[in-house]
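FW: tagging you since you asked about this chain on Friday. Here's the raw sequence from the shared folder, copied in full. Didn't touch anything.
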Amino acid sequence: MKLIKKKISILMMIMSMAVLQSGCGQSLNTPAVSDTVSESEIEEETQSGTETDSETESKAVNEYESATVSYLGPEGTYTQEACGVFFDKKGKYIPYKTVAEAVEALVNGESEYAVIPQENTIGGAVIDYVDILIGQKDVSVVGEVELPINQNLLTLPGTKLEEIKKVYSHKQGIAQGKDWLKSNLPGAEIIEVSSTAEGAKLVAEEGDTSNAAIASAACADVYGLEVLAESIQNNDSNKTRFYVLSKNEPSREKSDRMAFVASGKAEDLPELMDDLEDSEMKLVTIHDRPRKTELGEYHYIIECSNAGYDDYEKLTEKHPFEFRFLGGFSLK
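HL: got it, structure written out here
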């Protein structure tokens, strides 16, 4: 494109000289336009520029075609569903037994991305996973998914509610269905497992009609179970927020959202929040985790909208926190 502009500038200069010389009654003794820059050259350069733009767009569209994504398994988890939403069901999704293992796979180069649950409407911050994000300083946040969550009671086909003595689920699934469980299965033993899908898998493997799991309806298809009770979560507006992680440098482009970690004393937080509001950054969420140094010191994971890297830098210049930028990213 720079070459095109240069050639057009030369062309315009020659034309201006021609007009001046003609106006002064002098003969025009300048090179022909075709000797300087031909129309075909300009067209060729223009087409070249167009092809480059097209290639860029194509690259953006196909960015995730061959991506490898690690997630909390087994097959059928809500995290796998979030992978499909963000990556448009493209790429290869690799299940791991724990979120820690899924993130470690990213750090070790076994995957290009990792997807982790971060917050739920009912259960709040998924603190174990927030701690992993804080502890892994080699990763950045490159995307976010907000996924509606419908929890269901899954059983072996033909199971009756009164038969159930044991219920498996992830602690978030248990928290989201606790009111329903209290009303309908008050005597059942509640057992926490690594994921909602893991609970469904155990019910299928054990083959015992006294067992049930709280999980997605998709798990019923995956593990040959049936939905005995639908939408047992405490809140019909139940959602989980997932972060998409990468080892790439955090993006500094202004995007839908921006996140960073501020580590320091709780007494300094109000002033940070005041400056955040004064700069017209909109607070989306904030989670605190103990810094494990002194009482009253925390890691704060702060997510904002209407904010860019410049806004973040201004905050870091004014406050005593130890900051770490997690990235600007899109929301799906």
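FW: The two ends are 34 Å apart (CA to CA).
HL: agreed, and Residues 152-229 form a domain with the D-Maltodextrin-Binding Protein; domain 2 fold (CATH 3.40.190.10).
FW: great, closing this out.
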